[in-house]
Structure formats: C-alpha cells, structure tokens
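Narrative progress, year one. The postdoctoral researcher (J.K.) led the effort to move from monomer predictions toward full complexes, under supervision of the PI. The following entry was the first complex the group processed end to end, covering 1356 residues in total.
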Amino acid sequence: MSQYATLVVAVVGTGRMGADHVRRLNDVISGARVAAVVDIDADRAKRVADGIEGCTPHTDPAAAMADPSVDAVLIASPGAAHEEALLAAFARDLPVLCEKPLTPDPASALRVLEAEQRLGRRRVQVGFMRRYDADYLKLKALLDQGAYGRPLMLHNKHRNADTPPGFTNAMMIHDSVVHEIDVTRWLLDEEITAVRVLRPAPSGHAPEGLSDPQLILFETAAGQIVDTELFVNCGFGYQVGCEAVCEGGTARIGDDHGVFINAAGKWGGSITPGFVERFEEAYDRQVQRWVDATRRGEVEGPSCWDGYAAAAVCEAGVRAQATGERVEVELVERPALYR
Amino acid sequence: MSQYATLVVAVVGTGRMGADHVRRLNDVISGARVAAVVDIDADRAKRVADGIEGCTPHTDPAAAMADPSVDAVLIASPGAAHEEALLAAFARDLPVLCEKPLTPDPASALRVLEAEQRLGRRRVQVGFMRRYDADYLKLKALLDQGAYGRPLMLHNKHRNADTPPGFTNAMMIHDSVVHEIDVTRWLLDEEITAVRVLRPAPSGHAPEGLSDPQLILFETAAGQIVDTELFVNCGFGYQVGCEAVCEGGTARIGDDHGVFINAAGKWGGSITPGFVERFEEAYDRQVQRWVDATRRGEVEGPSCWDGYAAAAVCEAGVRAQATGERVEVELVERPALYR
Amino acid sequence: MSQYATLVVAVVGTGRMGADHVRRLNDVISGARVAAVVDIDADRAKRVADGIEGCTPHTDPAAAMADPSVDAVLIASPGAAHEEALLAAFARDLPVLCEKPLTPDPASALRVLEAEQRLGRRRVQVGFMRRYDADYLKLKALLDQGAYGRPLMLHNKHRNADTPPGFTNAMMIHDSVVHEIDVTRWLLDEEITAVRVLRPAPSGHAPEGLSDPQLILFETAAGQIVDTELFVNCGFGYQVGCEAVCEGGTARIGDDHGVFINAAGKWGGSITPGFVERFEEAYDRQVQRWVDATRRGEVEGPSCWDGYAAAAVCEAGVRAQATGERVEVELVERPALYR
Amino acid sequence: MSQYATLVVAVVGTGRMGADHVRRLNDVISGARVAAVVDIDADRAKRVADGIEGCTPHTDPAAAMADPSVDAVLIASPGAAHEEALLAAFARDLPVLCEKPLTPDPASALRVLEAEQRLGRRRVQVGFMRRYDADYLKLKALLDQGAYGRPLMLHNKHRNADTPPGFTNAMMIHDSVVHEIDVTRWLLDEEITAVRVLRPAPSGHAPEGLSDPQLILFETAAGQIVDTELFVNCGFGYQVGCEAVCEGGTARIGDDHGVFINAAGKWGGSITPGFVERFEEAYDRQVQRWVDATRRGEVEGPSCWDGYAAAAVCEAGVRAQATGERVEVELVERPALYR
C-alpha cells in the first residue's frame, strides 16, 4: 500500500456505531473507503453495502478479511464478538481499529494481548475516543507539561439524560465508567490499583433496580485519588467533566469553555492566538460543504451578490473612515439570480 | 461526474491560504483531490505540486482549467487576480470556491456578477468562512427561529494581537471589517445602508499612521444598528464576538462557551443532549488518525494493554459496587510490547 | 459633633427612595439615626416618623434643618425640589447627601455650584451610587493602576426588564443614561465633549412613542469613545455592564463573575486570596442578624446542637483520617429544645 | 431592653477574630456597641478598649458579664476557653454569639448542651458564618424549594493558599472540614452518620507531616453521599465551592458567578430582576461612607461639579436623541473648589 493510496477498510458490525463509522470513513474523513461490511444479520449488511460503490456485504468477518483488496479492519460489533474478529485480523496481519471494549472481560482480553504479542508488533488501536477530544487533549498536554506540578487528584463527572431499558448496575461500570477508567490511566499515566463504589440513596428517576447516581473512587499506583460522579438518569442532558488537581493549580474541562485553570491567584483560560486556530474547523467545514455540493451538481453558500455587497460596504466604510461622516451605501438592484 | 466520483480540483494561488487549501482538499476532507495548482511564481507552484501524486503545476489559471480532468476551481490568489480567474472558470462553466474578497472593489464585483448572470446559474461560492463556524451557525439558527423576537442590534468585537508591516486604515475595512459586513448581512438577512466610523485616540501600540482601535457603525435596511469594535493591535490574542440584541433576549458568541443567552430572567446556554453531539469530532479525529497512521504503516493510540487494563478495572469495579468494599485490581505484568 | 457621636440626619422626601434611606440609616449602617423626615405629603411624613423613636415629621425642609440636633441632610425628594433643599442646607452649612440628579438641568445645577462655592468648601455628595458598587470599584482601581495601559473605549450595557407608565425618550437620558454619564466621567477621569444617539427600529415591546433600544455614543476630552446600549424594555431583567478596552487588555464587569480580564493571552479573573475577603459580608450579616434577633429577644441561627454534632463528626473524622477506615458517628438523641 | 435600644455587648477574646468583631459591632453594623472586652492578656484587652468610648477591659469573662449594662456576649476566645465563658453567660441568662467551635470535643459540647437545656430556652448562636453567605443562602433556598428534586450528593471544595506553621492533620478536620460538616448538615437537613478520609500522595508543597490534599466522604442519615476536596496548600488562593446534585438538576456555587444551575437542558443562572437587588450593597456602602466621612467632618464622593456635568451631558443627549446629530457638550470652566 503506497503512502498515497486510499485505505481500503472492512467494517465488522453495521449497527448504530458500525453504520456511523461506515459513513465517517466514506464521507467525512480523508484517505479511506469501505470495501466490505460484515454483520450476522445478512439483510442489514446488504442494506449498508448497497449504498456504497464497490462494497461487498458479508456475514463472516474472516471472509471479509480474505478479500485481498482489504487493507485494514474496523470492528464495531458487540463486545462479545470482538475476540473472534480480532484473531481473524491477526491471522491476516491486518491493522485494526477496535471499538471499546477490547473484549468484555480480563481473561479474553489477555488472550488477545498474547495473540498480538505473538505477531511481534502492535496491530490494534482500541476505540477510547476521549483521547481524541479537543478538550481532553488540551488537559493531557497541560498535565504532560507539568506546568502546575504533579496531578494529585481527578474529579470526574459523567452524566447522561437517561438510560435505555435493561441498563444494569454492571453496565454502569462496563459501558459508562470504562471511559473514566481509560481517561484516568491516560491522563495520569498510571495504573489503577484499587476501586471503591459508594452508592447514595438512588434518585426517584432511577429505573427499578438501578443504583443511580454512584460515586466511584480509584487509587493509582502513584497514590493519586480519582473520584467519579456517575449519574446516568440526571434528566438534563449529557455532561462529561474532569478537574485535575495539581500541586500548584487545577485545570478543569467540561463546562463549555475549553480548559479552565485555577493557578497563581487567577482563574480563567487561554485566548486563541490567531484566526487560523479560531476558524480552522470553519475552513474545513466550508470546503467540505463546497465539495459535497459540487459533487451533487449544486451551488450554495455566499454568492457573488454577497461578494459585491461586501465590496460596496467596504468602499463606503473607507470613505466614512476618512471623513468621519455617515456614508450611505449604494447597491444596484438585486438581480433575480441572487434573490 | 458521478455522485460518488472524487472531485478533481484546480487550486489557483499557492501562497499561505492556497497551500493550506491544497492540504485541506487532499488530507483533511472527504471526496476531493487536487490535480492542478496555479501560481505566477512557477517554482512555488512546482514545489506544491511535487508533494502530490498526479498534480500538475501551472502559471496560467486558464491553462489549468483546460485540463479536462478538472471538475472545479478553488481561487486563493490575491484579490486583484480574482476577476481574471473567475472569468476563466465561467468560460469553462466550472464551479468555483473563491476566497474573499470576490474582487477588491464594487465595479469589478459587478462585472463578475453580470458574467455569472449570463451563465444563467450560480457557479461561485465566496469564502466567507464565518458562515461555517459552529458558533455563528448556532447564532444564525437562533435568529432564524426567532425564539427571542426580531434582532434589533448587533455588538461585534474583532480583535487581533497585532498587524503585519504595511497594514493600513483601508485594510482595516477591506481585510478585517469585511467579515463583520458579511456576518451582519447574513445574520440579519438585510442589506447595510449606511456606515459611520468613529476613531478614538489611538493606542500607543498602534503602528504609526494606523488609527487603532475603531468603532464601526452600520445601519441596515430594516433600521437595525450594528456596532463593531475593531482593535487589531490589542496585544492579547485573537477574539471574535457577536451579541445579538433581540426584542426578548440577547444571544452572544465569542466567549469560549458556545452561545450565551440572556432571556426570561436567566443567563446561560444549552446542555448537549447526548454523547454523539458531544464527541462527534472526537470520533472523526480518532478514525482520521487511525487511517493516517495505518497508511504510513504505523499503529498508535490506545493499545490492547489499555483494553485489558480497562477490563480488569471494570471487573474489580463491579465487585466493589456489589460489596461496598475496597477491591484491589489485579494485572499481569506489563509485556514488553506495551511499554 | 464628636468623632464617636451618632450622626443625626434629616431626610427630605419619604417616597420609595427616601423611605429606603430612612431604613438604611436606622437599621443597616452604623453611626447614624434619623431625627427628622420631610415630605410635602404631611401624612406620609408622619407615617414614616411614627415608626422611629425620636423622629419628627415636617413638610418644609428648612424647618427640619432648623432642629438644632440635626447634623446632616439626606435629600431624596423629586429632582425639581432639590435646589431649594440644597440652598436651605447651605444656609445652615449642613453636609448633604443628595440623590441624583443634583438638579434637573445645567442652569439650576450651576446656581447650586455657585452657592456652594460661596460657602468656600464642599458640602454636597451626589448620589451616584455606582461609584460604591464592588464591581465598579474594582474596575476603577484597575484603570487607575494602569495595568493594561490607557483606556481607549468603554462599552456599556444598561438593560431594564420594563419601564413604568409615562416613561419618555428624555427620561431614558435623564434617569437611565445619567448613570453611564457619571460612570464614564469617573472611570476615565475625563469630561464628555460630544454626544450622538442612534435609534434603531424599536422593539415591538417598547411602549408607544418610546424609541427602545438606543445606542448612545460619547466622545471624551481625551478622544476616547464610549458606547452605551440602553434597552429599558428588554423583558429579561436588570443588567448593567461595562467593558473597558485598554491598550494592552480589556476588563469587563456585569457578567456575574466580578472583573473579567482579557490580557496577555489569557481570559479570566482573580482568585480571592483568603477567607476574610471571601466571607467578609457573611461575617457582617451573621453579627447583624444576631444583634437584630437579640434586640427582639429571640435566638436563631446555628444552635448548640449544631455545635455538638460538628464536634462529634470532627472526632470521627480525625479517627477516619488516621485509620483509613469508615468510622460511624455517634450522637446522643436530639433533645426536644433543638428539634 | 427596648426594641429600639442599642444592644450592649461584651466581647470575650480580643485576638484577630475578636478584634474584628469589636470593629464590626461598633463601626459596621447597626444597633450595637461594645461596652466590655475580655482577654487573659490584660494589655491587649486594654489596647482594644482604649479605642472605644465607654468600653472597659477585663481579664475574666464572668467579671465582664457582671456589668449590669451588658445585654449580650460574643465569644471569640480560643475554643478551649469557650465552655467556661458559655457557662458564665448561662449563669446570667445572657444571649451569646459563640465563634465556632462550640467547644473542641463532643464531651464538653454535650455539657454545654445540657446546661442550656436546664435554662429551658436557647441562648446560643454558634458562629457557622457560611449560613450567612449570599451564595450559600441562595443554594439553601433552592434546595428547600425542591425545584430540582431531592439532593442526592454534594461535591465540596475547600482550598487555601497555604497553612500557618504548626497546622496538623487533625486541624484539617477541626478547623477546615468543620465548615463542610456544618454546611452538609444545614443544606441537607440531615445528620452525618459515617466518615471516610482518603489521603492521596501529598503535594510537594505540603509541609512535612501534613497529608494534603485529602478527600473526605460523608454519609447522611438519608443515605446521601458528600465528598469534600480539602487542599490547604493549593498555592493559588482561597476557594470554597459546593455542587448539589439533585434528582433533576445540579446547583453549584463557588465559581464567582452566583448559583450555577444544570437543569432541563440548560446551564446558567438567574438575572437580577431590578436595580434595587443589583445595587443594594452599593446604596448601603454609599450611605455608610457618607456618614463616616461626615462624622469625621469631611466631604468626599461625587461633587456638585459631577452633578452639574451630568446635567449638561443629559441636556446635550436629549438634543442628540431628537436630532440624530452629533451634539457638543458645553461646560463652564471648572471652578477651583472642584479641581
């Protein structure tokens, strides 16, 4: 595979997450396309494949990976199916992006770990996506710089509006807290050595049998303490927050304003240095929308009329600037094409 | 061009903005590639083209557009060169994304406007990228919904840390305020009918001859008043803000916390409803990084060890949850592959 | 009058503001009492005086000031009545706190000014109370320190939920903008030399005939520009804000979080250095409530039971700290007196 | 003692807190004066008494309380001396404001409790001053209204810049956490039934032997969980925060912007309804400053010149409003008296 070649991907699992990853690979990001999709539900696999040029549906992961055009595998099937798919990918030495969890329990995870070691090199990236969130990345960079000294504690918050039917106490750990487990290990670069769970009297909005909220406490190998409020039926929306308490300051994310610092007698955050940083995503979105519309044979967005009107106001503005007076803007009548 | 075909783009201008758009088209967004680059500096065009498979350098826009594989044109040359490039694109009926300004003055803009009308359909999108910024989009949506009544005033802020050598008062309008001109027209959906510019005693940090800051005042056809603080040597960073004052509330962007509302006795904003909205960009970034690394033959990101450790902590967590006790986490020794 | 003597005050005007000042002088602040109240409405004066030990009602300001026990005068009658009351106070050389406006127009103000000069020393403090607001005081201190260089512009906001019947455009200046006039002159320590008023198309919630909102623009003797959004039927509450744009940073008050600074690449504010600054008002309020209750013969607030329970939890806490274990708190049964 | 009589107070303890309470009683609040001060250090008592008209120094609390003019007692001596002073006040049936702690341990507190019960009515208010803080009061009111359902958890933060020499782990509970103990009991209206203390690896800035920070966990009789981060050498200032997690929303204080709510899809707070609420303290401070200056024979604050200048700008403003033009402000030359 040349550096410039498009990455050809097989996606295992075409449920909600899998279908979203198919869309992402084909329509959002650069440099990849989906050539095979796998689902034990053959109809679902076929429906997804039908929408994509050159994409074949499968029911067996190994069969999809046998396609010689496939360069890499994205696994988004239920956790219990991961081990088999991972081992099939290892058999063909294919790189894998595996949605979390790697596998549902330590014993099976250990088998995967050992299989990858037999390959002699890493093939798997696990889908802990918070490590790619802009706010968590900034917090991680701050901690790695050590600007405020060593981190001593983390205070996490993890709130969901509500839970789907059948959500259990164990799922609160496996599906929700698992993110704080990874965030803790990644931010602090330490293993977690002990866990406590405190269960207050549950909310009246908690489904029968669910102990919600809970307070989860971690200790790390370095003696740090991490607390996590998990409240999965909070009713008001989705909120994820993390405050790192360091020797000389605290840094908090999750309040909708980037990284919030307490240090050296001040609270606050950083100002974007320039327009590139501020509007980088707007530029990306602008060009993506233009490409998408053009591929559909359409034209949208700001028109020549908008360009003309801006030029006319600029001209008046420069005159107003020079004279200090009110200057009227003159425009031709708006042509039909731009109404 | 089929709906699924990659859009083949010629980029006119390979300076800072042009080179950045080349990178964006090839490496960031989905569905496009650059097949031709144009610059009056032949060496610069060649340097940019050399880094891209199947990309030809040109010094003449019309020659680049003559390549029959070219589907569309992105113009990022200096404003004075836009008219010629736009007319060349019109001659071949090619869709265009034209960086702002459309052209530097109303007379030339009018010529472009007339030429496009002769084509009988829109071919041009002008690069007012703020219309694609997440915050401005939310503000626009709020105003269009009319949740707080009609907008009566806008208060804009536009601050730069400093200006490059040779920056003039006229450029403060043409290069800086032009964004507020477009934002005003777009947010309010009204033409600007008059302009005033008030010039306070300048900052000691303003370069000789530059009247900085300035207060620019617009009136719209609907009688709205818009003020803009322009301060291009503020020293502390880049800040863009807009507060819309409506009949029943105000909505402000630019303070690093999304849209800030005053209405009905409350200040504040909205909570993200779910993890998809909150982490959408993290998912995109995760998969893009995986594809990029895989294309380079590398593996990075969370490893199988991270997956295993998470599974082990989850197992301990579920036990801690059930017993109310402190539960120690047991891990095998970390294998060499994951150190 | 000795330094330790209580200041004996005559209050002129017993409407809403006047009655509130009577309460303030007697029950809130230290070192003063009201011995005379004046109102052209004799019944109203009597009703107010009846509630206060040793207080006499009057209908004529001069008669009240003739009481030899009166040390000072607080004028809170309508503006048109101020000149007469001020001159009566000057006749007896009494110090005056005069609610704003000093008088309603420059000609009468000039007469007062000349009369005070004839006394040869200042006797009057005008009631521009924003100069005593904690946030404005902090902003003033920042500007006086010059930490961010000279102030170049001020952006003011002045919003009221709604206006009483009969509120006019002229009252928007005389009753509302007058505060920004004083704030501008005080913060910048410069006279205002010119005024512009821009009137956008009014809100649908503005009463018939009222041009609301308005944008008021001041120029100062030093060439600074000050803009004020005045919106007196904004519907959502009362908001007052001021952002000072200085050569090297901006400082904003009015967003419910003290002074908000943009400077040197950071946004944010200061952290209170210690508990005295943080809880000073709580201490004042605590002791005032205790004195008030005790004077009424009552006991309220935290009880001995609260003190005992705190001691018991502390004891358990110290044990928990030493052992690392969960320690139960033991309390005697709660006595009837504390239920 | 009549309802209108000044409350005559004996203050026991004239150290930092005691001297501050003397100042508060005499110069800040309304309706009280200090007639006796007590300190085992006779010189210190004398120095404090000397500054106050009609105030006698004592070394024995009982002797001070024997003064028949004394109406009430404020105890601000070290905690170990409280029991004796309280019993002396009970012997004379005097109302007491007792600084926290009531006494240093549950056994002595229980003796005081029993003594007060023998009086048959409450005589003591304990100085847990956070119950009088504006932010805590708002949070308490919210919880009592139950607007967001029952409170399930509290997250407290208590941070000090640093600790004085000799500060011990036990003092972290007795002097610092004691506030969170009272806040918890008061806000939740429940007793604390169990305590845990988790001690992370200490900060490098913690003095030898001090385990700083700590995480303190309370359980309440109703099954609520309360966590408190105590970090007394955080270095950056003093911060106290409390977030109440309720069944349908959270309410947080301590981030310098009043009460911050998450509920019903929104984050944010309340807007002050009117100028009285917004500027109440400014009015109090204005009048207090005026009374203080007048008692010293001085005049300060806004002058007649300020009143005149405001009137002149108002007049110009009304003209500018009517004409839409720039109107110059005319002032007489500033008289010497007002320079």
